[in-house]
Design brief:
5-stranded mixed β-sheet; Heat Shock Protein 90; Beta-Lactamase; alpha+beta; 5-stranded antiparallel β-sheet; 9 helices
C-alpha cells in the first residue's frame, strides 16, 4: 500500500516529482517531470535510477545513500553534467531527496522533488557579468576623473611656478636695466628662453625633459653655422623646474658670450658639457676659449645672481663662475641624484 499511496500522491502533484523504489531504485514520475527527461528515452517508467541517469549517477549516488539512510537532503543550484543531444552539458538543479517508507516502516525508496535552474543560473551569471563590467567602467571613470583632478592641480602648481619665475625675470630685468626699453628687451629674451625649455617639456607632459634637448633648444638662437659651439654629454632627465632653470642659465651665459666673450669674434668657441657624477648627481661645465681677453665685471647684475644662486637652487647644488683671462668658465654641480621632480 505504501507504494500505491506514494504513486497516487506524485501523480496528483503539479510539481515535477519522481521517486525511486525498491532495491534497484525503479523510477516513477508524474507528467510534469517529463520535460526534465529532455531527449532521454521517454519509456523510463519502472527502469533503474542508475540506468536512466547513468551520466550523473556517480555524482548523486552519495546523496541517494543519505536518503536511503533515512536522512533527507536538499541542494540549491547543484551543477551536474548531463548528456544532451549527445554532448555533455553543464546544468544546474535545485532538489531534495527524502526517504520513502514501506508499510513496515523501513526505508524503501527516495522521493525527488526537483526543478532545473540552469536558465536562472545563466541569467544570474550574465547579470553578474554586466554588473561587474558596469562597476569596472564606473571605477575606470572615477579613476580617470581622479587623474584629471590631479592633473589640474599639477598644472595649476606648475603654472604658478612658471609665472613666479617669469615675474622674477621681468622684475629683475627691469630693475637692473639702463632704461625701460632695455629692461623690456632683456625680459623678452629671457622669457623666450623659458618658452624654448617649455617646448622640450611638452613632449613629456611637463614631467621631465632630456638634458640634451634642453641645451640644444637654449643654444639655438646663439648658434651659427660655423661650428663655434660644442655640446657634449650623456642623456638623463631634468625636472620641469630644472629644465627651465638650465635654459635660463645657458641663455645668460650665451648672451654675454655674444656681447663680450667667445662668441663675439670669429676665433671664439664655447664648449658646454654635462654628466652625472659618482653619486648620480648632474654636473655642468661651460668653457669659453679663443675670445677676447676677459675682463671681470665691475658689478654683479641679475644675470650673475641668476646663474650662481637661483638656478643652482633648482638642483639643490651650487655654482661658480670664473672670469679667466683666456675665457669664462661656469660650473654647476648638483648634490642629489638626477630624478623627476614635480
Amino acid at each position: 500500500m505504501a507504494l500505491v499511496n506514494t504513486l497516487r500522491t506524485v501523480l496528483a502533484t503539479r510539481q515535477p516529482i519522481c521517486f525511486w523504489w525498491g532495491p534497484d531504485l525503479l523510477q516513477f514520475h508524474n507528467d510534469d517531470y517529463l520535460p526534465i527527461l529532455k531527449d532521454r528515452n521517454r519509456q523510463v517508467l519502472g527502469q533503474p535510477f542508475a540506468d536512466i541517469w547513468s551520466d550523473v549517477w556517480e555524482d548523486v549516488e552519495p546523496i541517494v545513500g543519505e536518503a536511503l539512510a533515512g536522512r533527507g537532503t536538499w541542494f540549491e543550484d547543484l551543477p551536474l553534467h548531463l548528456v544532451r543531444s549527445g554532448h555533455p552539458v553543464e546544468t544546474f538543479w535545485t532538489f531534495s531527496y527524502s526517504p520513502l517508507f514501506d508499510d513496515a516502516g523501513n526505508v524503501a525508496g527516495v522521493m525527488n522533488i526537483v526543478r532545473e535552474t540552469t536558465d536562472a543560473v545563466r541569467h544570474r551569471e550574465a547579470l553578474a557579468d554586466e554588473v561587474s563590467r558596469a562597476n569596472s567602467a564606473l571605477s575606470s571613470l572615477m579613476e580617470a576623473e581622479k587623474r584629471q583632478r590631479v592633473l589640474q592641480r599639477e598644472l595649476t602648481h606648475r603654472m604658478k611656478n612658471t609665472l613666479a619665475m617669469v615675474q622674477s625675470v621681468v622684475t629683475q630685468s627691469l630693475r637692473h636695466a639702463h632704461d625701460v626699453k632695455d629692461g623690456a628687451r632683456l625680459a623678452s629674451q629671457r622669457i623666450d628662453a623659458l618658452a624654448r625649455a617649455q617646448d622640450a617639456l611638452t613632449d613629456s607632459n611637463w614631467e621631465e625633459a632630456d638634458v640634451g634637448k634642453v641645451a640644444e633648444a637654449a643654444f639655438l638662437p646663439h648658434c651659427d653655422e660655423r661650428g663655434r659651439v660644442t655640446l657634449e654629454g650623456s642623456s638623463f632627465p631634468l625636472s620641469a623646474q630644472q629644465a627651465l632653470g638650465l635654459s635660463l642659465a645657458i641663455h645668460e651665459l650665451a648672451t654675454n658670450a655674444v656681447k663680450h666673450g667667445a662668441l663675439s669674434c670669429e676665433s671664439g668657441h664655447v664648449r658646454f658639457e654635462w654628466w652625472l657624477n659618482e653619486v648620480g648627481a648632474p654636473s655642468f661645465r661651460w668653457t669659453e676659449t679663443g675670445g677676447p681677453p676677459v675682463v671681470p665685471p665691475s658689478r654683479s647684475g641679475f644675470g650673475s645672481r641668476l646663474t650662481t644662486r637661483v638656478v643652482p637652487s633648482y638642483f639643490d647644488g651650487h655654482a661658480s663662475i670664473d672670469y679667466r683671462r683666456e675665457g669664462v668658465v661656469y660650473v654647476l654641480e648638483a648634490t642629489t641624484r638626477s630624478q623627476t621632480k614635480p
